[in-house]
Amino acid sequence: MIRVGLLGCGTVGASLVALIDRQNATIQARTGLSLEISRIAVRDVSRARPIGIDSAAFTSDAMAVATDPNIDVVVEVMGGISPARELILAALAAGKPVITANKALLAAHGSELFAAAEAAGVDLLFEASVAGGIPFIRPLRESLLAEPVVRVMGIMNGTTNYILTRMTEGGADYSEALAEAQALGYAEADPTADVEGHDAAAKIAIVASIAFGAEVTSSDVECEGISKVTADDIAFAKRHGFAIKLLAIAERFSDSNGDELSARVNPCLVPNSHPLAAVRDSFNAVFVQGEAVGDLMFYGRGAGGDPTASAVLGDLVDAAVNLQSGAHASLGAFVPMAIRPSDQLAAAWYLSLRVDDRSGVLASIAGVFGEHGVSIDSMEQHSLSGPDDAANEARIDLIIHPALQSDVRATLDALGVLDSVRSIGSTIRVLVEADR
Ligand code: NAP
Ligand code: HSE
């Protein structure tokens, strides 16, 4: 019998309790171990919870659960940094393996927590923290341990992928689609973490740490969310054979000067021919490129109670089996690695401008691109004014060939001061063949 202490019983915790109930006989048959949820810490013990566990098991004293000598393994699914950090450290110090789904915590304090698990000689497992139900962390840390991974690129936030899919396919309004994602249990307690890219940034920081054995925290990740993506951008992308996706990307650059890495989250126009373009709704996918293995893709449900509970339960069984045999998984030490500034990264971009609709304007705009050595790949212009309209405004949408971000930035600055340019709208990266 493995006695489990559960910290948090919300979307993920309640699904985990139900899944253990359903699968315990199978787990026992396959491992000889039976799981029992012995105690549960929640914020509000008075709330009715239809999960079939005696109310005596509930407490608001989470530290008492984390350090209870009768608890064998602790599962942290409460979220947030504090008190989750202190609770996990206390459980590890008491010699208990810990399972967590908390990417925000691992992306901020992973090194400290992994070192504490190593010092205690117990597991700290976190499969559910990245890409929900997709078994990706275990393949990355075990199967791909010796693979020279060059790039990991993924759709790692279910809420934003759901919103973008609904806006693209159903013409839904942004806030309507966000409300649906929240009702389905995909969104974080504060959905700003989803839509502004912070949730995906935490996940790619964890992935970069493991893929490259480097110390990477959320603060190393350049981050832009989807809140500025417009219906016009989505329509442009559709007309030109792209899907707009929020991509989280970790990349390693190796040359004679050593290794550098880049970790970033940004919306991107993904060509429909790329497998990531076909990832819809709350599904996540992680695309790995290794020098030896080539391209790999992992696909599945990235959010929601049941898929996330599946990942937590896999870790829980693993930790229980390890506990019996006195073994534990080890990540090794992370080393510092320089971050390549984004200005030194090359990318293709989609740029949208509002300009005066009169002769000579296009020539002056094209001239600015030329002066900065930025090459235009394709261009589309629509007049926004009627024949008798004095506004004389046009919208110009361009895709540029890959260029250094510093040059793109300088081009946009120079365009911004042209009399004929009324405003610079969306600027979104484009995934091109060279990125694959
Ligand atoms: P949630 O529905 O908000 O549940 C949080 C639970 O933790 C609630 O039961 C809450 O108690 C309890 N709690 C919060 N603070 C507490 C405290 N200080 N002491 C005791 N209990 C406390 O959150 P969730 O969606 O299940 O997410 C949990 C974790 O999983 C987060 O780290 C999240 O990022 C991660 N995750 C979530 C998903 C997903 O799709 N939802 C997917 C992957 C990872 P009350 O019930 O009394 O409020
Ligand atoms: N809020 C997260 C998402 C949950 O939407 O992907 C899974 O980590």
Automatic annotation (TrEMBL):
Requisite cofactors: a metal cation
Domain ACT: 350-426
Record's signal peptide: none
One GO term (biological process): threonine biosynthetic process
InterPro entries hit by this protein: ACT-like_dom_sf (IPR045865), ACT_dom (IPR002912), Asp/hSer_DH_NAD-bd (IPR005106), HDH (IPR016204), HDH_cat (IPR001342), HDH_CS (IPR019811), NAD(P)-bd_dom_sf (IPR036291)
Pathway(s) served: Amino-acid biosynthesis; L-methionine biosynthesis via de novo pathway; L-homoserine from L-aspartate: step 3/3; Amino-acid biosynthesis; L-threonine biosynthesis; L-threonine from L-aspartate: step 3/5
UniProt enzyme class: oxidoreductase
One term of GO molecular function: metal ion binding
Annotated family: Belongs to the homoserine dehydrogenase family.
Protein name per the record: Homoserine dehydrogenase
Organism for this UniProt entry: freshwater metagenome
